[in-house]
């Protein structure tokens, strides 16, 4: 088994915490996995439940992937018992992007309003974090990434307009896309967490070609804006030993540092990428030529 039993416990504000651990897998182990084995090890199927924090801890760089959809009022971020911390950000940093209706995050008494596709970084040492939606009929859905941190960086909101934008690919190769670098060192300081959002244009379905690995970082992809009835086929594994996982809207997938991470959809879509590891160099990638993929 690749995961521990989920635990569901109430927080002080009535929100619940669902927590799951995923053990690190080696390339040799992944070669032998069935479809179901791959999905259990790497796919995060459900991130948004009303008033419930849902966390998946990967033992690759102790990366936490989560989501919160506040509906019944204010929900407070509490440290899951498995972290053995006095408060969630005692030894961690936190990044998020809102993929739902307008919402608000209050960090140590300072309020930040987040519209659709806006991001917020909260630094290590922040003791109180609260989430709420402006309209419970159109609740915010905060997609959350958290990594261990050894230094504190300032909390800051980043809008889409403030992102560092890269126009990549072409319609001819079906990968014309805009990369929005949001929580990276070109925009603001972080300890090790980096997050951004890639939007594929109509008629384009491929990310990210040429495929690559980076031994110095692991990554998590969250696919959304996948139209109803459509799906994304996510490719992973060593460049000469690839595997695939079919993914639906608003699902995430863990990518080990030794694995490629690419996808092709039956429609265009958007995905959020998050990274953690030794360095903050976005361009630190070991590319694999497309004809060499197996």
From TrEMBL:
Record field: catalytic activity: 5-dehydro-4-deoxy-D-glucuronate = 3-deoxy-D-glycero-2,5-hexodiulosonate
Organismal lineage: Bacteria, Pseudomonadati, Bacteroidota, Cytophagia, Cytophagales
GO terms under biological process: D-galacturonate catabolic process; D-glucuronate catabolic process; pectin catabolic process
Gene: kduI
EC top class, as a word: isomerase
Alphabetized UniProt keyword annotations: Isomerase, Metal-binding, Zinc
Protein's UniProt name: 4-deoxy-L-threo-5-hexosulose-uronate ketol-isomerase
Keyword Isomerase belongs to the record: yes
HAMAP family for the chain: KduI
């Amino acid at each position: 088994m690749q995961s521990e039993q989920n635990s569901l416990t109430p927080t002080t504000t009535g929100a619940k915490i669902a927590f799951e651990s995923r053990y690190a897998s080696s390339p040799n182990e992944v070669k032998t996995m069935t479809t179901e084995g791959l999905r259990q090890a790497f796919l995060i199927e459900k991130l948004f439940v009303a008033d419930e924090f849902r966390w998946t801890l990967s033992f690759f760089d102790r990366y936490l992937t989560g989501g919160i959809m506040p509906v019944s009022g204010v929900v407070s971020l509490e440290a899951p018992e498995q972290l053995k911390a006095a408060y969630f950000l005692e030894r961690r940093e936190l990044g998020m992007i809102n993929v739902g209706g307008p919402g608000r995050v209050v960090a140590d008494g300072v309020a930040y309003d987040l519209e659709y596709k806006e991001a917020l970084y909260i630094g290590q040492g922040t003791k109180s974090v609260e989430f709420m939606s402006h309209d419970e009929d159109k609740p915010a859905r905060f997609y959350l990434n958290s990594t261990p941190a050894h230094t504190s960086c300032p909390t800051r909101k980043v809008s889409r307009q403030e992102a560092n934008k890269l126009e990549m690919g072409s319609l001819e190769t079906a990968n014309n896309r805009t990369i929005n670098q949001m929580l990276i060192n070109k925009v603001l300081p972080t300890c090790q967490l980096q997050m951004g959002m890639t939007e594929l244009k109509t008629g384009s379905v491929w990310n990210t070609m040429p495929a690559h690995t980076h031994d110095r970082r692991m990554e998590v992809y969250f696919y959304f804006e996948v139209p109803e009835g459509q799906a994304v086929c996510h490719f992973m594994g060593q460049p000469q030993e690839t595997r695939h996982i079919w993914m639906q809207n608003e699902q995430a997938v863990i990518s080990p540092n030794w694995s490629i991470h690419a996808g092709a959809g039956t429609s265009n879509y958007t995905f959020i990428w998050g990274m953690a590891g030794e360095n903050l160099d976005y361009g630190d990638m070991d590319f694999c030529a497309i004809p060499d993929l197996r």
